[in-house]
Design goal:
Elements lengths: L2 E3 L5 E5 L1 H5 L18 H4 L2 H6 L1 H16 L5 H12 L4 E5 L5 H5 L4 E3 L2 E8 L8 E2 L19 E5 L9 H10 L2 E5 L11 H7 L3 E6 L11 E4 L2 H4 L4 E3 L2
Parallel strand pairs: 1-11, 2-3, 2-8, 3-4, 8-9, 9-10
Antiparallel strand pairs: 5-6, 5-7
Length: 238
């Protein structure tokens, strides 16, 4: 199977936990997944951060350690190569907080759920996030913002608004082709993106080991591991 990208097409890509799972990062929805042994309310809500910041930082420090041990897989690399073939016509939105897309070479992307390798002020004082790859052994090691507030992971917790939504909506409206990779179609607002794209007249392609919950919104469903089926799937017309 080959899907053509014409000279007038604009491609919007959405990736989810499945693409990172192929690199060895477990997904929290799996039975042996990332959040096994943790209640969501204990580690991924604003209330959890206020109640027990040490536990929250312990969890995200472990995630940083895990991320440092894995590498981009062929699906990440294929997307970076596709971006290079579509200058000015490629946009990547990921639900993942790891940096595997960047390490593969992707450049025009946003992390709608935040970034694991960044921290920001817990007081939300307005200062931008800072690069932070540290794995903290205790809360005492966590740095502070110039305003005095302790740093928190630059992660969108449950109950918080996803990042970059106005830009994401503009990119979807401008796209003629949407590719969704490795996401179940059950997490909102991302699960709505394909519906918005279809309403705007775009072709929509899904890649994953099984059909997503929103399968009826796709014009093409390609079942399989992204690292196996994504390389070579698209033909860029000149």
């Amino acid at each position: 199977m080959s899907i053509s990208i014409t000279p007038s097409d604009r491609l919007f890509v959405l990736t989810g936990a499945g693409i990172s799972a192929e690199s060895g990062l477990p997904t929290f929805r799996a039975s042996d997944g990332l959040w096994a042994g943790y209640n969501v309310e204990e580690i991924c809500t604003p209330e959890a951060l206020r109640r027990n910041p040490a536990l929250v930082w312990d969890f995200y420090s472990k995630r940083r350690s895990d991320c440092a041990k894995v590498a981009p897989n062929p699906a990440h690399i294929a997307l970076a190569e596709l971006e290079a073939q579509l200058p000015g016509r490629f946009f990547l939105c990921t639900q993942n907080v790891d940096d595997l897309h960047e390490r593969a070479g992707s450049k025009n992307l946003v992390h709608m759920h935040g970034e694991l390798a960044k921290s920001r002020c817990e007081r939300e004082c307005g200062r931008p996030p800072v690069e932070d790859h540290a794995v903290y052994a205790s809360l005492d090691q966590v740095g502070r913002c110039p305003c005095g507030g302790r740093l928190r992971p630059h992660i969108v917790f449950f109950g918080e608004i996803p990042l970059e939504m106005p830009r994401i909506e503009r990119e979807i409206a401008a796209s003629t082709l949407m590719l969704v990779v490795g996401t179940s179609g059950s997490v909102y607002p991302a699960a709505n993106f394909v519906h918005w794209a279809r309403q705007a007249g775009a072709r929509t392609v899904y890649i994953g080991p099984e059909p997503p919950f929103n399968a009826t919104a796709f014009t093409h469903i390609v079942e399989g591991k992204a690292g196996e089926v994504l390389p070579g799937l698209f033909h860029v017309e000149s």
